[in-house]
Amino acid sequence: MRDEGTPRLRGAVLVVTSACNLKCTYCLQDRHPARRMSEQTADEVLDRLLRSRQRKLAIGFYGGEPLLAFDLVRRTVEQAERRRPRGSRLLLSLSTNGLLLDPEKAAFLAAHGVETQVSFDGSPAAQELRAPGTFGLLSDRLEELRRLC
User: Could you give the C-alpha distances from 20 to 31, 64, 100, 105, 113, in angstroms and in order?
Assistant: First the structure.
């Protein structure tokens, strides 16, 4: 039997983990115990989303830092692609602080068309206020990825 709310469902945001590798001064996320979404929960969200009658289906991956649960992101992307209804289109996105975005993860995200948003405060002073010591690390990481692309 079809759930009455399912036919209009267009997307889902998965907070795959509340854990983060930073302690940003303005973030409220670290004020709660770190938790991780189970594979069962991700599967249940996919089940419901993929029953939708919508032709464009969006899945966003957030956290904490979703790359701390990259195995779950990878599994969910692969399942969604394998199970999506014929004729439907998946719009995938992920928001990250970028520090864990290594070449392997970046290649997977690019190969699967995952729109990847890097949260970066821009100037050294602003980034230092956010999370001390991260401007150079993130700048180096982004430069490494730019050279590889």
Answer: 11, 5, 10, 17, 24
Taking a C-beta distance cutoff of 8 angstroms, is the pair 108, 115 a contact? no
* Residues whose CB falls within 8 Å of the CB of residue 17, separated by 6 or more in sequence, listed in order: 34, 35, 36, 37, 63, 64, 65, 66, 68, 69, 72
Contact 116, 98 (CB under 8 A): no
Distance CA 115, CA 104 (A): 16
C-alpha span between 81 and 127 (Å, rounded): 36
Alpha carbons 130 and 91: distance in angstroms, whole number? 30
Confidence band of 23 (pLDDT split at 50, 70, 90): confident
Four-CA torsion 14, 106, 128, 13, nearest 10 degrees: -10
User: Looking at residue 72, what is its pLDDT?
Assistant: 98
pLDDT of residue 6: 56
